[in-house]
Structures are given as structure tokens and as C-alpha cells.
Amino acid sequence: MIGKDALRAAKPYTPTFLALYDPWVIRLSNRSAWRCPAEIMLAAYNKHLGHRHLEVGPGSGWYLVNAQRPAESLITLMDLNPAPLSHTRKRLHSKGCQVRTVTGNVLDPVPDSAGTGFDSIGLNFVMHCVPGSFAQKGVAFTHLARVLADDGTLFGATILNQRPRTLFGRALSATYTRAGAFNNADDNCTGLESTLRAAFAYVELTDVGDVTMFTTRYPIR
Ligand SMILES: C[S@@+](CC[C@H](N)C(=O)[O-])C[C@H]1O[C@@H](n2cnc3c(N)ncnc32)[C@H](O)[C@@H]1O
Prior knowledge:
The protein is of the alpha/beta class and about 220 residues long.
């Protein structure tokens, strides 16, 4: 059964919010609240996107739409909320991409209908939404490691619980936490790193502003 806090965290991504997502989150908040311009995370997509890619929590789909995608790639989108799935599917279809969508909770095993053996998995700005400390929500990495190819890469970014440096970041963090959209009060670097290391033999973490980016390889079976 999906917990009510997980549903509450995914609920804000309505068609109306998704229409505003790119100017508000991608352009303004990433740079001015979290001090990590979207182009830095886009570079990770450009580097790691494989032929068979699973994107968990696509939001508006901005990164996938703007990334340099391998020719004839197949992109699978997974989200707890169907609105980001249809929003991103439409945008990617208009670029001629092959897209599949699966409704799923990252805290549960990836549904069989999503498939397995992905060359890459993107998990960008999802873990700070998901409820629980890493001791609980870190199970997501184990579920995703199971569907990553032996030579695949899982990459993404999250905002840990350190106090954002900017006033704008602190105001956004407090507002999103009150609304149940942010659940990162117990998220620290030790918890993130140890749960990633339990699921992958190679883990690299990089801090940019208030954002922690991660790249992992060699899923532990
Ligand atoms: C902050 S948005 C991130 C969007 C995009 N990846 C980005 O980096 O801008 C969070 C996304 O994760 C999805 N999400 C939240 N909780 C989830 C869960 N438990 N399982 C799967 N998706 C979830 C939301 O519906 C939304 O699409």
C-alpha cells in the first residue's frame, strides 16, 4: 500500500504546476534558491543517458527534452503521479522519441511492466520529496539497482537537510516542507552515501550549491 506521505509528496505536480515548472523550478529556483543552475544537471544527462533509459519522477521532462539523447533511444518514465507522465510523454513524442510510461512508487519494487536491464536511470530531485530518512527511503536505490544493467549508470541529484544558503532557498524549503512536498529533514550525506554504497559498488558524490549530485555504477545483485 502506498503511504499517505508519499502520495502527498507527489500530489503538487498537477498539469497547472507542470506548465509553470520550467520557469519556476528549472530556471529560477535551481539557480537562485539552490545555487545549482539546471545546465549543470543537464550536463549529467548528456554524459550518462543510454539507449534504454528509465527516468524516475520526470516532473516537466525538461532535462530529457533538452538533453543530447542517443539516436533511437527508448525512454521509460515512472512516476507515482500520472500527470508528469503524460506531460513528459507529450513533450518527448513531439521530439520523435519512443516513450513508455509506468505508474509506480520508487519505494516499491519497479513494476515488471517497466522492464529491466536499463543502460541508465535518472533520479533527479526525487529523493528529497520522498518521505522517511535514508534508512527507510534508501530502499529505492536497491529497487532501482535491480533493473539497471550490469554496466549501466544511475545518476541524479537531491537536496539534503543542510540549511540552504540563500534566503530564497530557506523560504522555499520551509514552504515545501509545510506542504509535504519536501521530506528531507532527516537527509544527511552519510545516510545518502551509505545507502547508495549498499546498492552500488561505485558511488561518486559532488556538491554544487545546496544540491548533492550522485553517479553510481556496478549494481550489487
Ligand atoms: C521535484 S519533481 C522533479 C522533477 C524532475 N526530475 C526535475 O529534476 O526537475 C519530483 C518528481 O518526482 C515524482 N515523485 C514524487 N514522489 C515519488 C515517488 N514516491 N515515486 C515516484 N515518483 C515520485 C513527482 O511526481 C515529480 O514528478
